[in-house]
Write a structure and sequence with these properties.
- The protein is of the alpha+beta class.
- Helices cover about 25% and strands about 45% of the residues.
- The protein is built from four helices and eight strands, in the order βαββββαββααβ.
- Strands 1, 2, 3, 4, 5, 6, 7 and 8 form an eight-stranded antiparallel beta sheet that branches.
- A hairpin with a 6-residue loop joins strand 2 (about 25-30) and strand 3 (about 35-40).
């Protein structure tokens, strides 16, 4: 990382930043260029393992591309604040961000789908207690991204 003074190294702080983000941008490989799509997400940390859960339609470009290459990158950012300067080049932005990558796959069984959807709902509605019918589970695609690398970055003036 070029700006090591902005690097967040503590795993708990990185997870805290991720918990404050509303949208995760998923980057998928294509033969021609990266394909980036904003997604809702949930996260589960168990020991050193970090799993990101995403939901999707059951068909489309994203799933076709993931069938060709299961490696994916992601980015999430939050805590934005524009800091004005005396001149244009003195303007800056406060932020917190998380960037990483890993292997992503479609969840096949209803137990894993349920786990992923509950993680997503905990992210957006932490006080809710949600469950899903078999019909609801059959109607949605849940993606599981097993994070292999992750970094955090923060800038506050």
């Amino acid at each position: 990382m070029r700006r090591s003074d902005r690097e967040v190294k503590d795993r708990a702080e990185i997870l805290d930043i991720l918990s404050k983000c509303d949208v995760l941008r998923l980057g998928i490989n294509t033969p021609d260029f990266p394909y980036v799509v904003p997604m809702n997400f949930g996260a589960e940390a168990e020991g050193e393992a970090l799993t990101l859960w995403l939901h999707s339609a059951s068909a489309g470009s994203k799933l076709g591309l993931l069938g060709e290459d299961s490696r994916a990158g992601f980015e999430a950012d939050c805590s934005h604040k524009l800091v004005a300067g005396a001149r244009a080049c003195n303007y800056t932005m406060e932020y917190e961000s998380v960037v990483g990558g890993g292997d992503i796959r479609v969840c096949g069984d209803s137990g894993e789908k349920r786990r992923g959807l509950k993680a997503i709902m905990r992210h957006y509605a932490p006080d809710g207690d949600f469950d899903f019918t078999d019909a609801e589970l059959a109607g949605v695609c849940v993606l599981r991204l097993d994070v292999a690398r992750i970094t955090g970055k923060r800038f506050h003036k």
